[in-house]
Design brief:
By secondary structure, the protein is α+β, with helices and mostly antiparallel strands. Helices cover 35% and strands 22% of the residues. It contains 16 helices and 20 strands. The chain is globular, with a radius of gyration of 23 Å.
Length: 494
């Protein structure tokens, strides 16, 4: 494929034919030639090719706001065949593609800031064949997570992967980022529920992977290679999801604890004797913010350094007595200072809001987010080391901790002081992040536990992956996407 624009080549890592590139003020705009626009329109229909500025902003970014969205166009295909045709045209014309789902990501994986064509999968939103024997259902990539959860409930079953963005995230995006959420301790990640995939490769070919099988050891499982690949290897267009038994009578308990080692002791005690569906944590500053801004009540009056939120099923009628006995034991050991347990569905929902509403609450402070993980046993020493580093480097920064401590995933949020601009704040946090990621490397952890790499974590990938691993990733990328049309510049540079 002949190179067309050196300026674009150096910024995005690939060339664009049949386009006019205007560079301005540190950014640029790609204007597609009329004949290319006509070809795109003929594939998806003129009303499904969006060229207006509002659509470019809406579809050209995810929940991150670091880069200014600047796609060349937005296409909304209505079929798998149209997705294939778009990818084939992109190869012929040298046009980069950014696959787009619900755009709820936090690492810039769905950002189109370099004149790419956004391929938004919103219209592939049909729930297809359901098999009650296999407990499986076929979903288009654009199916909203909450829509799948409701469908499962209507069948008397359950889709357990759950997170705050379930009302807007899409199944294809969940698979592309291997989304986790609040129930991983019991149910695992998205990949644990995917039994089949249809994927359009970087050359426009359609792969049908695994066909819903539970057991399939016939060679490499390319399905799992696609899960978590962030749209760099293929565009996920259809997913076959496994469902499970619906949980029975869930109860929620919030415990106040004096320190992080006490949380881990409490976790170990409960997990040894009960099957938990969730074990989350948040700090006192996080609770203060939520209570002040979400019209919620504190779980109990006395402040504690940290809080643990536990959820468990009541299937036999004895689980509540067992949980209360464990609570009393933890009180006696000094691991827990106080606690409260839900007595109704409404109370359980409000207790969950103390944890789930944190991200929305602190958004007004433009937080610098880190999504980190280590093995569960190392969480206390890891948090202590990170907090000491941030406090020493920037004593005026406020730190908000919360996360899925039951699976070793913690979210470090540094709140922006009013006196700093976003640019200055990001620069300072970027410096401290290097120290944080050194601690991640020392603990053999991950710089991205569940949010993916995208563009924001790309510079820090070597803290979690070896040079050999990254080079093998590049080789895999070249195999599935030889011309580099799919989500260029994400995860790593070729």
């Amino acid at each position: 494929m002949a190179g067309f624009a050196g300026a674009y080549d150096s910024i995005c890592g690939r060339a664009v034919n049949a386009a006019i590139i205007r560079i301005f003020g540190g950014g640029f705009q790609v204007t597609l030639a009329p004949d290319l626009l006509d070809k795109l329109s003929r594939i998806v229909g003129a009303n499904k090719l969006l060229m207006d500025a509002e659509a470019h902003v809406q579809y050209g970014r995810d929940w991150t706001r670091v880069e200014t969205p600047s796609p060349a166009a937005v296409a909304l295909p209505g079929s798998i065949e149209q997705v294939q045709a778009l990818v084939q045209l992109a190869n012929a014309e040298g046009l980069a593609i950014v696959p787009s789902g619900g755009r709820t990501g936090l690492s810039g994986g769905a950002v189109a800031a370099r004149g790419e064509l956004v391929v938004a999968l919103d219209n592939l939103n049909q729930i297809g064949a359901f098999n009650s024997i296999d407990r499986s259902v076929v979903c288009g990539a654009g199916v909203i997570t909450e829509q799948l959860q409701q469908f499962a409930e209507d069948q008397g079953l359950h889709y357990p992967v759950d997170f705050a963005s379930s009302g807007s995230s899409q199944i294809g995006g969940n698979v592309a980022t291997n989304a986790g959420g609040i129930k991983v301790i019991r149910y695992g990640m998205t990949r644990d529920w995917v039994v089949g995939l249809k994927v359009v490769t970087g050359t426009g070919e359609l792969l049908e992977l695994n066909a819903g099988l539970i057991k399939n050891n016939a060679g490499y499982d390319l399905r799992h290679l696609m899960i978590g690949s962030e749209g760099t290897l293929g565009i996920i267009v259809e997913v076959t999801i496994r469902l499970c038994r619906a949980p029975t009578d869930l109860a929620v308990m919030v415990l106040g604890v004096p320190d992080m080692p006490s949380i881990m002791s409490t976790l170990a005690e409960f997990r040894q004797q009960m099957e938990l569906t969730a074990f989350e944590f948040f700090s006192e500053p996080a609770l203060q913010k939520v209570v002040a801004h979400q019209d919620l009540q504190r779980p109990f009056d006395e402040p504690c350094a940290y809080y643990a939120l536990l959820e468990f099923e009541q299937t036999s009628g004895s689980e509540m007595d067992q949980a209360m006995a464990l609570f009393e034991h933890c009180l006696e050991q000094g691991w827990v200072l106080d606690g409260v347990v839900s007595q109704s569905v409404a109370q359980a929902r409000n207790l969950w809001r103390l944890r789930e509403d944190i991200s929305e609450t602190i958004a007004r402070w433009a937080p610098y987010k880190n999504d980190l993980s280590v093995v569960v046993s190392k969480v206390p020493e890891f948090l202590t080391a990170v907090e000491a580093l941030v406090n020493a480097a920037y004593p005026d920064f406020e730190i908000i901790w919360y996360g899925h401590i039951g699976d070793g995933n913690v979210h470090l949020n540094i709140l922006k002081p009013e006196s700093l601009s976003i640019a200055d704040f990001a620069e300072q946090c970027g410096e401290v992040s290097k120290g944080v990621f050194e601690i991640v490397r020392e603990h053999r952890g991950s710089v991205s536990a569940e949010h993916g790499v995208g563009v924001l974590k790309k510079p820090y990938l070597p803290y979690s992956r070896s040079p050999l691993e990254i080079e093998l990733m590049r080789a895999i990328k070249r195999s599935f996407d030889p011309n580099g049309v799919l989500n260029p510049g994400k995860i790593f540079d070729l």
